[in-house]
Automatic annotation (TrEMBL):
Name of one Pfam family that matches: KhtT_N
One of the record's GO molecular function terms: monoatomic cation transmembrane transporter activity
UniProt protein name: Potassium transporter TrkA
One example of a Gene Ontology biological process annotation: potassium ion transport
Length: 160
């Protein structure tokens, strides 16, 4: 999909794209942190009709809602394409020796061969977490690897 970015001096940035119905959609990212979603008039693409406004927090929530399923779909597609590869989840339970410690302290990849590709924390998705990302109680780790590797990551989180 082609997304056009336009600088709006003194205002922010506007992103535009045409959807599958042929409508031109615009998202104005204002310098204030707010966003405005607009629909352009088919008869005059210089005329934009505001659809709704979002605060920075609301835009972040919407991005998480729209982004999280896409991440899960991509991992599911990947595991279907590669024999022996699975996607799973491992929960950082209260009392885990890794609560409030960096992900790298688990040594999960080295010890299991499985990769932690995302952390789901409350309603937020942290894709591609680095070894310095601090784990919290109730974090859900998205793990790609063999079934044994995924099970081993769960065991590491529970027992160390």
């Amino acid at each position: 999909m082609d997304v056009k970015e336009v600088l709006l001096p003194g205002v922010g940035l506007r992103y535009e794209f045409d959807n599958s119905d042929g409508d031109r959609i615009g998202v104005v990212a204002k310098r204030t942190g707010d966003f405005e979603v607009v629909l352009y008039a088919a008869e005059d693409l210089d005329v934009a009709h505001p659809l709704f406004r979002l605060t920075n927090d609301e835009a972040e929530a919407l991005a998480q809602i729209l982004g999280a399923p896409r991440i899960a779909e991509r991992f599911a597609d990947l595991t279907r394409e590669v024999p022996g590869l699975s996607a799973g989840q491992a929960v950082v339970r209260p009392g885990s020796p890794f609560v409030d410690r960096p992900l790298g302290d688990t040594g999960a990849r080295t010890r299991t061969g499985a990769s932690i590709v995302a952390i789901v924390r409350d309603d937020e998705v942290l894709p591609s977490p680095g070894p310095k990302e601090v784990l919290r109680s109730a974090d859900v780790l998205v793990v790609i690897g063999t079934d044994d590797g995924i099970a081993s990551v769960e065991e590491i989180l529970d027992k160390g």
